[in-house]
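Quick illustration, no need to memorize.
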Amino acid sequence: MTEEKEEAGGGPSDEEKKQSGIALTVIRSLNTTQEAPATPGELDLDTILSRMPYKEILENLFSRDSYEPHEVPVIAKAYEEAFLREPMTGERACVAGDMCEAMHIDPTMPFMCVEFLLPNETCSMPVTPQFCVLCSRKTTQKLFYDILFTGKQVHGVIQRHGNICGTPGEYARECMLVCPPSAPLHCMPVPIMSHQRNKYEVRVMNGVKHIVQLRVGYEDFQLPSTKDVA
């Protein structure tokens, strides 16, 4: 009876199970301490960036085609924060499953965050499940530091999207990952919000678990004017 249900679409296909397994393997390899940049030895870039299974499951996250410029969408803080929550009916959870970063923010309220969809994906959900906002940040940040430390040539882009910063209502420049001139700019062409677990807090709003970002906004880093102080 169970097999009949799965064949009729009631359960995950063999391909979906395979992809989920690969995602968990990748997340486990990336699940390092957040307080300091990871060392180059923790992740074999040659292996991760060249294996087709990894490309397939994250085909919408990392492009490995060539050195040609890759257009990376720049996302507003408010849009990103709308996905920092539990999945609603009809939505999918982060492909990382129980290894999702949201599970580690508050041990008393662990949950899987909703998968992050870019604006052009909201009308037509991608066939391949995606990471949530936090897992996307974590993966990009891990690869970012590994590239800086190893100096290896990397084909393609290591970010799925970038973020607006330095303007009211958006992220503070002080909290961004920015590719320095000495690094391969084609890998991370636009700034993206960095990932630190101590910058998040879990709160329940209308019965739904949300992740609130702490001291990452433009306004959080502005000094009061002389007039305000007086």
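The radius of gyration is 19 Å.
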